[in-house]
Write a structure and sequence with these properties.
heterodimer, A: 251 residues, alpha/beta, Rossmann fold, B: 336 residues, mainly alpha, two-stranded antiparallel sheet, 14 helices, 74% helix
Chain lengths: 251, 336
């Protein structure tokens, strides 16, 4: 069942076509990886779907509804959340507060002005539950700015996950971390989103990670979708191999 | 199932409340030990602290530096003057009940225009709008009294229970008004403390620290900033309402940009990244300015030197510096 679909989605920056008539689909419940070399248009596509960018033309359908003109707020309420390529946290706040804010927001409690945030037991319980799922519970009182890079990456995902989205975009959740941390992060993220029945789209460069965790892989190149298939199909695709090895398509 | 770690601990808040009560008792007892002049000065200090608390909801908690908060202080002050002159109202409670909505409406209007911008653009817009009010107060002298301003007589307190005429009226007013302002100050402190510790307050801090991420948590940035602006301006307006009966006169000077600068100064002096910083800043600034004015005709130069020294030597302000000093001597708490 299709959860998200883009129809002829276009975005151009000057002469550069970041997204060139992209028809991209995400099926409900899958763990999809979006791959491609730098500048392929992966982050631009996620930015367009999450309303971080406005498309030049085309449509974005989420659960059959056209969300192309919806604001960031409306898309989040519809069930789309995301993390960022460069870790984007509230560094002066504790790990607990970073996640608690997502819970408050999801429950529509951020407008509460006469209640003490720390006294909301339901939010506390859920925040601790999410932190536990991501292995961050012991760090809950630490300032987010004081975490190691691997922990920051996990917290970044946890903050987005705590919104309980239907569709979660993760932009390079393992970039800038050690190989050992990569496996740990992806094991955690994969098990949490699968257990929560959340559909996930992961932008990733490490093909070992991609092949290991994905149900489906979509490859982008120069703003277009180049390949789409299971890990085995992508592994056998010569165009994908050529691009990953830096060989031009015409070669 | 809930584990111990997720349970709310009330102990730190009870300790904080105990400290606040002790400070309040000390402030309540002070007039018994200091003279009339010092009591009057302290009243000015508490009013400055209220203005700074309101202002700091924007600077410290929302990350927006307003250079136009004199507008709301002035709106509060002129509201009282108009209510007295044009409606013959003498009740302090009516001044507050009518003056606060006026300050709130003006804050909502100014905020609607300003919060779509941040950084220098926000600062310039607030400055420009406050200067418009200053010009109006200065030029429309048949309404505002122009540069002479408007006089305000001593109001009645607590629904006419306390009036200040006859013998020793000034002394009784200074004492009575001190306790009145102290009561309002205590209420404002509680309100502001609850606001900054509410989910709304946490959302403001998130917007201050990382606007993009806050938006992607589903926070409507402009709306939050606007509400913060509205509360901030209204509280600063309340300070203006309280100030004018004590001062006995309001002039366009309270709408001028240099007065906005003084509000900024109080927050920086006390420490705008702490809740109590603006309170300390308000009181210290009042004494500093009073003694600087009494000491030298170049008092603005003296205040300027103090501000430069503060920014260089104590960028986190008096309270921020004290907190850092206390932390320095505390054993370091490392996460396992």
């Amino acid at each position: 069942m299709i959860l998200l679909q883009t129809v002829d989605l276009r975005k151009q920056f000057g002469e550069t076509k970041a997204c060139d008539n992209v028809n991209f689909t995400v099926n409900k419940g899958e763990f999809l990886s979006l791959v491609g070399s730098n500048g392929a248009g992966k982050t631009s596509l996620v930015n367009l779907i999450s309303a971080h960018l406005k498309p030049d033309s085309g449509q974005i359908l989420f659960e059959g509804t056209d969300i192309s003109t919806m604001s960031v707020y409306e898309r989040i309420k519809a069930g789309i959340a995301r993390s960022f390529q460069i870790v984007n946290l509230f560094d002066a706040m504790t790990v607990f507060d970073n996640v608690a804010l997502s819970v408050f927001s999801r429950e529509g409690k951020t407008a509460h002005i006469t209640a003490i945030a720390d006294h909301d037991q339901d939010v506390r319980n859920e925040t601790h539950e999410v932190l536990g799922q991501f292995g961050l519970r012991a760090m809950s009182g630490v300032l987010a700015g004081g975490l190691a890079q691997g922990e920051r990456k996990l917290l970044d995902v946890a903050v987005a996950y705590a919104l309980r989205p239907k569709l979660l975009f993760l932009d390079e959740p393992t970039s800038g971390v050690s190989t050992r941390d990569k496996a740990q992060i992806m094991d955690t993220v994969s098990s949490v989103v699968r257990a929560g029945a959340v559909t996930a789209v992961v932008i990733e460069h490490d093909m070992d990670v991609v092949f290991r965790y994905s149900d489906r892989i979509v490859m982008m190149h120069e703003g277009r979708l180049l390949a789409d298939g299971t890990p085995d199909q992508i592994r056998a695709n010569k165009d994908v191999a050529n691009i990953l090895l830096g060989v031009p398509l015409t070669a | 199932m809930t584990s111990d770690v997720s349970r709310v601990s009330y102990r730190p808040k009870l300790a904080l409340a105990a400290v606040a009560v002790v400070v309040l008792i000390i402030l309540a007892l002070l007039p018994r030990f200091v003279g009339l002049y010092q009591t009057q000065l302290l009243t000015y200090g508490l009013i400055a602290a209220i203005a700074a608390l309101g202002f700091n909801l924007l600077l410290g908690y929302t990350g927006l530096l307003s250079f136009g908060h004199s507008a709301f202080f002035g709106i509060g002050a002129y509201s009282v003057a108009f209510l007295l002159r044009d409606a013959g109202i003498h009740s302090m409670e009516l001044y507050i009940l009518i003056g606060l909505p006026i300050a709130a409406v003006m804050s909502a209007l100014f905020g609607y225009i300003c919060v779509r911008h941040t950084r220098i653009f926000f600062g310039i817009l607030t400055l420009a709008l406050s200067q418009v009010l200053w010009t109006l107060a200065y030029k429309f002298f048949w309404v505002t009294g122009g540069s002479d301003g408007l006089r305000v007589a001593r109001p009645t307190l607590l629904a006419g229970m306390f009036t200040f005429t006859g013998r020793d009226a000034f002394q009784r007013f200074i004492h009575g008004y001190y306790y009145y302002v102290l009561g309002v100050f205590a209420i404002v402190v509680v309100i502001m403390w609850v606001i900054v510790h509410s989910p709304f307050g946490k959302a403001l801090q998130a917007i201050r620290d990382n606007e993009t991420r806050a938006a992607f948590l589903g926070l409507r940035i402009h709306r939050f900033r606007w509400v913060a602006f509205l509360i901030s301006g209204t509280i600063t307006g309340l300070a203006g309402i309280l100030w004018v009966p004590l001062n006995g006169l309001t002039t366009p000077e309270v709408l001028y940009w240099t007065f906005s600068g003084e509000i900024v100064f109080t927050a920086i002096l006390g420490g705008f990244r702490t809740f109590t910083g603006p309170i300390v800043g308000g009181i210290v600034f009042t004494y500093l300015k009073t003694y600087a004015v009494a000491t030298t005709e170049y008092w603005q130069l003296l205040l300027g030197v103090v501000l430069v020294a503060m920014v260089i030597l104590l960028p986190t302000g008096i309270v921020g510096g004290l907190v850092a000093l206390i932390r320095k001597f505390q054993p370091k708490d490392r996460p396992s």
